[in-house]
Amino acid sequence: QVQLVESGGGLVQPGGSLRLSCAASGFTLDYYAIGWFRQAPGKEREGVSCISSSDSGTIYADSVKGRFTVSRDNGKNTVYLQMNSLRPEATAVYYCASTKRLCKPMVDEYDYWGQGTQVTVSS
Asked: What Cα–Cα distance (Å) separates residue 16 from each residue in 45, 84, 115?
């Protein structure tokens, strides 16, 4: 029953914005940290951002600081990734994943993963 589903990806022009959603079912997101990851063709999966369950503490990869914002709406059991000033190098499949309480540094410390949503930044 545990499931995470990403949505909101698509084609956007450089400099544009997208908001990704990560909706949880089968469990309550209130007590979990949610990480956002991305994987471009031929590259390893990399961490983008994470939001913890407590006080909504957040972290960001250096490459997206100041342009991406992660937030959560516990009432909707959903976490969002607002992506602004998008660059072509942001093109990738974006995944959300859950881990208990606090954000973790390692990919394999996240237990549940969504199926991914494609983000393409191109003119």
From this structure: 23, 6, 24
Residue in this structure with the two tokens 């959300």, named with its chain if needed: 96
Token pair for 57: 């503490």
- Count of H helices and E strands in the chain? 0, 11
Both tokens of residue 51? 């939001």
Model confidence at 52, in pLDDT bands (50, 70, 90)?
A: very high
Of 20, 62, 63, 47, the residue nearest 103 (C-alpha): 47
Calculate what percentage of the chain has a pLDDT beyond 70: 99
> 106, 108, 119: which is closest to 13 by C-alpha?
119
Closest CA to 58 of 45, 69, 74, 73: 69
What is the rounded average pLDDT for all residues in the chain?
95
Distance between CA atoms of residues 106 and 111, nearest Å: 11
**Rounded to whole angstroms, what are the CA distances from 31 to 27, 35, 100, 103?**
9, 13, 6, 11
How many whole angstroms separate alpha carbon 87 and alpha carbon 99? 28
